[in-house]
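Why does this matter for the project? Reviewers at the last site visit asked to see concrete outputs rather than summary tables. In response, this paragraph embeds two records directly. Each consists of the residue sequence and, immediately after it, the corresponding structure tokens. Nothing has been edited or filtered.
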Amino acid sequence: MATHNDFGKKAEDLAVEYLQKNGYKILARNFRFQKAEIDIIAEKDNIIVIVEVKARSTDAFILPQEAVTKTKIKSIVSAANHYLEEFNRNNEVRFDILSVLPDQNKNLIIEHIPDAFEALDAN
């Protein structure tokens, strides 16, 4: 597996750990629908939280959350709709981004951005 894939997996594992420590129940990881993938599907306070994990080894060019394009949002929303239908869930849904970046000491820092985008942003 390539080094960037290892880093991405580590970032997703850290994101799951972060969410669990903050009271989220993990419902699914790497949920796939057609060509779309949702990194993490969680639940807290009866809200389904669709989480996109964005990790970068540096923020020199672009912040991780800036890499979530309209096309990516559209595919995430499509996969989220499929998940809700498949598991017969009628909960309110929120779309979050968890950004993972190393600090000066190479420690990975998580920034949680709740309500980072809406399904309407996919249009």
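We now turn to the second protein, recorded in exactly the same manner.
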Amino acid sequence: MSTTGRVYAEYSQPLWKRLLMTREAAVIALTLAVIAYSLVNVQNFDGPLTLKFLLQDIAPILLIALPMTLIIVTGEIDLSVASIVGLSSVVLGVLHQGGMPVPLAGLVALVVGAVCGMLNGFLIAYVGLPSLAVTIGTLALFRGVAVGLLGTTAVTEFTERWTDLATGTIGETSIPLVMIPFALLAVAFSLLLHFSTFGRGVYDIGLNSEAAHFTGVDVARTKFVLLTLSGVVSAFAGIYFTLRFGSARGDNATGLELQVIAAVLLGGVSIFGGRGRLHGVLSGVVLIGVIASALRLEGVTVNVTNIIIGLLLIASVVSGGLLAWLSRRLPRQASRASTDPGSTSTRPAARAGV
């Protein structure tokens, strides 16, 4: 009797294949290739200001992509993140204009973001409404409240100390200070998703929420927590966005949710849930940022940049579906060939001398 235990198909492969033959590894390799090409062929791409502005541009996307990754892994989606960015920006601006210090106004903005996320979480997790419909509705709701509070005006009188902090760098380097809170959040979300029972529950929900429920995962609470975290992180991104540009407006970050979702999907997260890793998502964000920065330095218009990024996203989604189809198709064909009565593998051996 064989003592060899069963193993999952993925773990039956050599370690190098499990590390390198993945979508995440492909995105990282493509990102490095694009960076290398840009350094050699794009004028001024290797300048210190390029790195600073690149990281500042993608910082809000990097921040929001952290909770968005976990949400999409569960099979849900949050389209209201950019509206929460705009609403938190307006709250910060209105309160500061009324005399409240920036730290206290920022704290209130974070609470507002948490409330927005809790509203999404309650409707999706406990009421059972589809996340796509709910967050489309709250997208319009939060944006409408933001524009209603401030109208078409903008608050621009922020304390120079705080705007300098949002645009400052770490020492003499070109790395913006916002990368410090991002790094802390990235570590926290990585531990949460990849090294905790909560994270295993997130994957279980994405694969089969009903089965996850029967194995002891609190599906509703998990979704509620993730959507609340999404609201808080989006509000923090809104505070950074406001202080970086020194302007609080109701239409700040319009369309940002599409860039976040594009980066998450490009980074290897399945839109159907159950699959994805944070390092792939972060590489996807950097890839989009590098492409946009390089094309901007080459004088390419924003519309062309969006077309290129859109085609890249479609290619990544199609390639993932195609590879999954091939992985299912090839074993079936091999199985049919091995059981075919006419095949040499199943034909009785001829007797010697006949």
